Amino acid sequence: MTTLPKSRQPELKTALPGPKSAEIMARDSQHLSTSYMRPYPFVPDHGEGVWLTDPDGNTMLDFFAGIAVSTTGYAHPHVVEAVTAQMKKFAHVCLTDYPQEITTSLAERLAAHIERPDEKWRVFFGNSGAEAVEAAIKLARNHTGRSHIISTLGSFHGRTYGAITLTGSKTKYKAGFGPLLPNVTHIPYPNPFRPPLGSTPETCGDAVLAHLELLFKTVIPSNEVAAFIIEPMQGEGGYIVPPAGFLTKLRQLADQHGFLLIYDEVQAGMGRTGKMFSFQQFIARSEECQPDIVTLAKGVASGLPISAMLAKESVMTWAPGSHGSTFGGNPVAAAAAHATLDLLEGVVKHPGCGESLMHNAAEVGGFILAELKKMQREFPFIGDVRGEGLFIGIEFVAPDGKADGKLRDAASMAMFERGLLNLDCGESVIRVSPPLILTREDAQTGLQIMREALRSLPAR
Ligand SMILES: Cc1ncc(COP(=O)(O)O)c(C=O)c1O
Asked: Where is region (Disordered) located (predicted)?
């Protein structure tokens, strides 16, 4: 293991990329798929905690966690130990055919976070977010005997055919790939900062649901709708939190018309918002908005590939053999998931992170959000700062209030050049989604880099 920089500051020894990184990047550009984007010239070589180092010895502070994946940071000893122990037992014996204690107990553990006394849940394991979403679509259609799926604009659900059809964020994900899945309709996401359909921040949730009811009267027979899939807090679309009451009313509409409610928690779930699942933030505020199906991936296993589609027992009615996966529920990834849950739940404590990583996400996230709101006063081009826990979006605006993607890109690069790994989302948003082991001290370092980067932007 490497030694952390004593000052806990990024250490930039070369211009980025350094010579060793540049050599890897050149080979990468020759041999890997042309679909990969390479916006930032950084080549990770090894990591520890919230720090990533490239082969030239440049160490960066990580504020994006490989897109909200590295829940426990890099090379967490508890995760490494769990993975190593499972590797010594067996790495694979297909879960579709053979039950395994490690996945049985993982299913019990995940379900325990959502089950209610009168409502048991079951779990299907896959390898990626898209697979969890595909499983959710198939189950919803199979269970209801209906075909139509409603999704939201701005959403991201993955890259497989069903998942890109449901995705509503960018046409480039769909261009040239048709035909996609039939019977999918997108309606606006209730974004309080940019209220759709002529609504206000307060009324945007009602406006979206009124729009859906209009569609039910005019173009989509509601008795043909299998499910509504939604990110309870929208990730790729801009780290957006819907208004209070929206999910509750959506739940009521689902019950009224008999369709299933699927929450895609792939990005916002696994403790990131300070609750295990982001919809539980609304439940904690006394909203009755329990879903029928939940999809999980990304943060489940601190970087090992495993996903889960959880459904109420009354909904998971498909027949044996109707769905499966060779690698899904891989035991090594399951071991990493158990270790991740240990830290999220506080069964195992991480030094400096209080009673649990979920608690730390709420605590340090609250601190970052408050500091960013102060920064908003200094920088008028920050139009909005929003989020829950360590799921935070910073939206950049032009003087006329329109989204300013170019300025966001410049800000993101200025932060990167100062040693802060970050990632854009939406039209003009930078997401703050660090590992959940981020301490207040490291958060302060990141915020200071952000401040300096924003000050360096040309005056407007
Ligand atoms: C909400 C959401 N759902 C699904 C996915 C797809 O996950 P994966 O890339 O693991 O297939 C993503 C990925 O960003 C996501 O953010």
From this structure: 1-22
